[in-house]
Amino acid sequence: MDDVDKVCDLIHDEFKGLEHGADPHVISSEKVAGMQFKQVSFAEGYKRDDVDKFMREAASALREEYKV
Prior knowledge:
Elements: H1 2-19, H2 29-34, H3 48-66
Protein name: DivIVA domain-containing protein
InterPro entries: DivIVA_domain
Organism: Bifidobacterium bombi DSM 19703
């Protein structure tokens, strides 16, 4: 869960910076699209399908809206 949270923070920072006209530098759409997380059994965490969907949507938004 911590790994997913860290990546979400990076994505958030990238969008915030881009919204304010900063040059892209935190994370790229290719990096987001290629991320894989360790699947943990019998532990509290996010649903894999939800994380995968979010990552696809974030990568698409970075690529299409910001050309990152």
